[in-house]
Amino acid sequence: MAQVPLSMNPVQFSCSICLELLKDPVTIPCGHSYCMSCLTDYWDCQPICSCPQCRATFSPRPTLGRNTLLAEMLQSLGAVKLSEGPSAPPLYEDHGFEHATFDVSSVRPERTDGERLLGETRRYLAQQIEESESELQQLKQTLRSFSRLAKAAVKDSSKIFSELQEFVERRRVEMKELIRAQEKAEVTRAENQLQRLEQQISELRRRDAELEKLSHSQDQHRITQSMCQSYCSPVSAGAASSLVVSPHVSFGPVRKAISDLKEQLQSLYHREFPNITSAVKTVNILQMEKANKALEAGDSAHIPSLDSRTDLLQCEKHQSDLNQNSVTSQSSSTKHDSAFLFLCRLLFAVFGPVHSTQGAFPD
């Protein structure tokens, strides 16, 4: 009997990097599969390990392991040699003679179940496409909003630092005015004292000159009177004698106080800047918690074993029942049975279990 053709799209099992059928396939935590050599070369050229399709990032770099299940599927796909040719004539076509040993309609439920499986898978894919498109639109909108928020944050931070710069500039002007005022006050006080000292010296020299003249006089009464006047009205030197001139005047303490203030500001900045950096890094568009959990669980969590899938067991059980019901035609339908079972395994391995309210197969 003719072999039932089975058509599969090879694009579904091709590497998105080299666009060829997968060679030594590996599956990364996000669920996508690539050639091991292609993905290794791609990650070696990238600063961050990420999926070329969904852009999910992984840190640390995952250890790549060969997906044995998918490799066997691809090997079986090549062995079966799926064709795109026209469908073979139905097995139940009238051949002009009676079928005495088997029922020609025994393969009809198998084809119906295969079509139902494909229909359920297409509906599942349509749902996934709809959800992905919704996520795509939401991500685009979030990106636009994020760009606006980032621009506003840059503007606000620039404004705050400008205000801080203006504050420091005002303090600099105040400090300059304070030093100039102190300089003016001290210079004025010193100049006044200098003027008083000069006047005092002039007065003392004048009196000394008068006493020198009296020293040549013979009139004792006049000498006594002049001496009394000199001692009774002495030059006020108390203020001058109470002043102590600083021999090492300096603005060193002022400079030290300003330097201490600068160090305190720098210390405050270095202490608080990590908090600012942490606050900036918490603003994320994508949350990678699921990807990280998948990374910890390992690659096997994304492509479970076929033996653990209830739907696949149902598929094999249903195939076994069909074989028992058509014992007499087993030799003529073996290739078709293997192709159908391979299709079931391939769909489950790539797309996962298909959930239906009616079940994947009838009881």
TrEMBL record:
Residues 15-55 form the RING-type domain. Signal peptide: none annotated. The keyword Metal-binding applies. The keyword Metal-binding applies. Residues 122-149, 180-214 form a coiled coil. It comes from the Eukaryota. Keywords: Coiled coil, Metal-binding, Zinc, Zinc-finger. One of its GO terms (molecular function) is zinc ion binding. PANTHER family: B-BOX DOMAIN CONTAINING (PTHR25465), E3 UBIQUITIN_ISG15 LIGASE TRIM25-RELATED (PTHR25465:SF5). This is RING-type domain-containing protein. It comes from Lates calcarifer (Barramundi). The lineage of its organism: Eukaryota, Metazoa, Chordata, Craniata, Vertebrata.
